[in-house]
Amino acid sequence: MPIITVERLSKIYPVAIKQPGIKGTFNHFFHRTYREIKAVQDVSFYLEPGEIVGFLGANGAGKTTTLKMLTGLIHPSSGNVRVAGYIPFRRQPEFLRQTSLVMGQKQQLLWDLPALDSLRINAAVYNISDRIFTERLSELASMLALENKLTQPVRKLSLGERMKAELLAALLHHPKVLFLDEPTLGLDVNAQVAVREFLREYNQRYQATILLTSHYMADITALCDRVLLIHQGQLIYDGSLDGLLQRFAPYREVKVELAQAVSPEKLKQFGEIEAIEGQEVRFIVQRENLTTTIAKLLAQFEVIDLNVNDPPIEEVIGRLFQTGTILENLDS
Ligand SMILES: Nc1ncnc2c1ncn2[C@@H]1O[C@H](COP(=O)(O)OP(=O)(O)OP(=O)(O)O)[C@@H](O)[C@H]1O
C-alpha cells in the first residue's frame, strides 16, 4: 500500500498586479486585481514505503510547492494528498511525528547555540525520552561523523557540518517519510558524498521513504532508481532514470580518437562538437543518425578508437530544462 498518495493535486497562487505610478498604487490599495500562477497542475503519483524517489524539474517548475503541500505547509487548491495515512494540511501531531522536511536553503537549528541545545528542544517537542534521545543522538551523530561538533555554536560549523546537523535534527524523531529540498545545495564534493551516503544508510536501516529534489544529478543517480519530472507544474514523467534518458535524450555521445588532429570545420558535419582535446573529439549525434555518422567518420579519417555512450545525465537534464526542449521532446 502506498505511503504517499497524490491525486490530481493543483496549486494556484493568486498574485496581485500593481500598475506603475501613483494611480497604480492607489488602485492597488482600493481595487486590487489578481492574476493566477498555476504552480502545480493535476499532479498524481504514489510512493511505496522505503522508496527513494528523485523529484526533478527546472527552476520554477513546481517542486517546492508540491513538497509544501505534501508537508502541510500550504493548502492545495484542489486534489487529494495522503502521507502516512494523514491529510498533511491538518498538521495533526501524529502526522508531524511521521514526517520531516529539510530545505537546503533554510535552517531550523539556532545559529548562536550549539546544535545539541536545539536537538534537546526538538526532543522535548516530539516527546522523546532522555534514554531514547541519548541512543538516537549517539547513533545519528556517529552515522554523520558529527560526534565532536554538536557542542559548538552552529555558526562555527562548516556548511557541510551544518547540513548534517540539520539532518540529525530532522531525523531525531525517526520519521517514516522524509522530504528533502536541495539537501546538498552549496556543499563541496566530499560533503555531498557524505550526505548521500548517510541518506542511503538511513533509508536502508529504517526503510524510510524519501522524496528528494536536487540540482546535483550525482545525488539522483546515487540514490534514486525512480524519478518524477515536473515541467511548468505538470508531471510529465514518472519512471526509471534509464527510461528518462531514453525518452528525453534522443541523442548519444560519440567519442573518437583520430590518428591526426583535424580542424573543427571538417568535423562539424558529423554532429554537434562537444569538445576537442588534441586528437580526441566528442560529438553529440542524434540516435537515428548514429550508424551513418560512424560509417562516415571511419571512411574519412584514420580512427584509433571510438566509443558511443549515453550523454551524462547532467547534460541531458541541462538540455531538457532549456526553454522549449522538453516540449519538443514531448511532441516527438
Ligand atoms: N508564494 C507564492 N506566491 C506566488 N507565486 C509563487 C509562490 N511560490 C511559488 N510561486 C510560483 O510558483 C511556481 C513554482 O514555484 P516553486 O517554488 O514550486 O518551483 P521549484 O520547482 O521549487 O523551483 P526552484 O527549483 O527554483 O526552487 C513559480 O512560478 C513561482 O514563481
From TrEMBL:
Keywords: ATP-binding, Nucleotide-binding, Transport. Pfam families: ABC_tran (PF00005). GO terms for molecular function: ATP binding; ATP hydrolysis activity. The keyword Nucleotide-binding applies. The keyword Transport applies. SMART domains: AAA. PANTHER family: ABC TRANSPORTER ATP-BINDING PROTEIN, ABC TRANSPORTER RELATED. This is ABC transporter related protein. It comes from Stanieria cyanosphaera (strain ATCC 29371 / PCC 7437).
